[in-house]
Structures are given as C-alpha cells and as structure tokens.
Amino acid sequence: MNSCFPTILSFEKDFRNYLTSNNSGSAEFHAGNFTYSPITLRSSMDRSPIFPHFGNASSYHPLIIERADGVNFWDSTGKKYIDGVAGVMVVNAGYGRQSIIDAMKDQIDRLTYNFLSYSISPPALNAARRLIEMLPGRMSKVFYTTGGSESADTAVKLARMFHVMNGDPKRHRFIGRWISYHGSTIGGLSCSGHPPRRKNFEPLLLNFPHAEPAYCYRCPFGKEYPDCEIECAKSLEQLIRNEGPESISAFIAEPIVGSTGGALVPPPEYFKIISEICERYEILLVMDEVLTGFGRTGAMFGCDHWGVRPDLIMMAKGMSSGYAPIGGVAVNEKVDEILQSGEAADFAHGFTFAGSPVACAAVLANLEILTKENLPKHALSMGEYLMKRLKELNHRIIGDVRGKGLLVGVELVKDRETKKIFDGSHQVAARVASLALQRGVKIFGLKGSESGMISDFLVISPPLVIQEQDLDVIIDAIDQSLSEVEEALN
Predict the structure, then answer these.
(1) CATH number at residue 179
(2) Does the pLDDT at position 26 exceed 50?
(3) Strand pairing partners for 458?
(4) What is the sign of the dihedral through the CA atoms of 154, 157, 159 and 165?
(5) What would the pLDDT profile of 358-397 be if each residue is shown by its tens digit?
(6) Helix (H, G, I), strand (E, B) or coil at 200
C-alpha cells in the first residue's frame, strides 16, 4: 500500500505517539499528504462519554459540531464543512430556517408537553391534517412516534391489529427484503435485511422472511433489465406461498433503499407488481418513507414516482427536517375502518414524547417551506446535476452511479468488468469518506452486506436547498479523494 495514504490504524498509532512526544500540542501533525490541527485532533481523539450510534465505542472519535447554517456546519475549531448527507438524510429544509425556529419558540411559550393518551395539542392536530392532505393513498389517520425505528415497530403492531380485528389472527409476520433497513428496534430490525446490523442480535429477532432486493446492478437472479421480467418483484409471490399466506401480515419496502444499499432504485414496473401480489393475498403494503419522504427523491414521497398507494406509510427524518424528533405511521381508510370497529379496538401502544406540541409546530413550519419553495422539484434538478457530474468522473473503481433526486449512491468495485467487490479489510469507501471530510465535505462511505452481494459505496444526500456551486465542491472532494485511494491501492 502506498505510504502516502494513512490507514485508520496507522493514523491513530502515529497520532498517539505524537501526543506522547509533544505535550504542548503546539506543533502540527502530518500523515500522508495531509496536515492536521492539534486542536481539532485533541478534541476528536479524546475518549467520549457518549456511546456511538452505529459505530465502535473503542474507536469513536466524533467531530464536535458547534453550529450550522444552510448546507454547512462548523466544528469546535471553526473549520467549515459542507454537509453532504443532511445529518443522516434528515435536514431537508437546511439548517437555520428561522420560520421553523420561530414556530418552535412560539409553541414553547404556549405549551411544551401533552400526552396523547388523553389530550392533543393544536399543532399535533393541524400537522396530522396537513400530512393526510399530502400523503398518497387516501390516508386517514396518523399515529405519532418520535423517530423512524419507533415508526417501524408501530407499523408491525398496527398491521397485526388490523388482521386480528379483521378476523384473521394468524397473520402476524412481515416480509422484508434483503439489504433493506427499517430501524434498530427489535421489530424494525426483524423487518430489515442488512446482515451486519442483524448479526449480533439474531437470537432476539422475530421470524420474518425476506425477499430478494430490487438491485439491477447485481441482480440476485443473474438477469438484466428489461429482459429479466422483473423477477425480483414476481418472486415475492412464491415466497408468500412457501411461507404460508395465512401467516403473512404485511410486506414492507423502502421506495429506494438508502444507507444500506447506496440508493437502490427499483425498475419502473416493480411496485405495480408488488402491489398486485399484496392485494391478491390480502397482505398489507407498508412503504417506509422515513428516509425517502418529504422531498428527498425529487417527489414529496418516494412512492409518488411509481403511483404506489400503500396501506401504511412510515415517516420521520425530513418530517421536521431534524428540528425536533418526530415520526409517524399513516394508515389508509381501509385499515382505519377496521381498527375502529368494535370494543376490541383498544390499541395498547404509545410513546411518552410522541406528538410533542413543539415538534409538531416544527413539522407544520417545515411542510410550509417544502411546499412554498417547491424543494422536491429543486431536489430533482440538483440530483440530475449531481448524477451527471458523478458519471463524468474517470475512476476505475467506480462501478455504478445511481439514485433519484438528492439520494445518490456510488458503488465502488475492485474490477469494473467483473464487478468484483473489495475485501472488507480495505475499507475503501470509508477511506474516501475520511479524505473527503478532511477536505471539508461530509459524505457516507459504507460497506454493504457480508454476503458479498454488495460492495463498498458512497452516499451523497445533502440538504434539499443545496445549489450547484456547493455540489461542485462535494464532487471535487470526492474526485480528489478517489484519486488518492486509487493511488494507494496500486
């Protein structure tokens, strides 16, 4: 490996030696072609009293972010970054939106908390009404949560309750898809099909089957679109038959698989076929719009691209653009009608902070921005520009560029012709992301399934307010970082 590129382990070793020999911390530390500020590194290398989310506690060296505005944030040393991932595909309307902040401040002066078991606030009522107007599929009610994982568990329970109330109590299992992700709670993780996130918790997970993904670049059936006859969708019917339709409650899918698949976009016919199969077997269709909702993919909701009309829709993330923790599950009229029938309609499920008045005030102000500024349309335009520029990059390790709107993935491969993946020890995507961060750009560099089905990939998903000049900075940082990694791999 080229010595100009510091690996994560060698970097930490060299830096700790530097700290030992330089107690004053006044000198700069050099690794590869980069010079690091001792102030930044001391703050990020200190042992954190906080457990990381989706990370290794022994190597958790987070940025300390002090402020943000628009598409940028600044760390504790004053260094400026472009947030190329919108936090974690959350800050759709951008940082520092004064109208959202003012709405939250006003609500704090009026009412900070109520419990939905016996009371409801005007912002919660108005936000639910507004969401029902916007959502596809004749939605009727919203069950509030405080995030996406809670929304997944709520969807599992709502679907189960629907079938119990409908006189079909044997139906209790969800069908998920491999590579998908629906949350870190037990219910959400049981639906998920991402082996690295499941492996340590397998004994705890529910017995939910998984269908093959819609993944054209690496078709699980070895076929190519359009001659494939959309087998990724049609195979769901055989899986249902194998598992026993009488046990299946719902099928759950992300319109576009995000951080566990690098923006996997299904074939145009996919969801029409899926919808027909679900209807034929009286299985509820649940769309996970936690990541794809609220303009991220260039439509207000991801399923709008294909005219999908689901029975349940999960929401979170861009619902408030990250100004307050909130999520929800919307149900359509068919499900709502059954759930309200009879005395047994007592849904024993809820969350202490769900439907917070302050969070719902943020939702209302956020939805106003998304619609008034037509941010889904802007995301579509900026996404087309981003995809075009990324496809123009000349790097031998770029295998595929894909996505919709401002949810874009770049799959990295060892061999473009054979699509051979990198060995996990190379941490190729993580290296690219690390180098981009040093250049002032935050993107995700991730590794896919341990099964070898998916390689390293980058995810770019900035705030929807981003402009071309900011995207140019992101692309230049990716371009330079890819060049350095390729040189190191030679």
Answers:
(1) 3.40.640.10
(2) no
(3) 410, 445
(4) negative
(5) 999 999 999 999 999 999 999 999 999 999 999 999 999 9
(6) helix
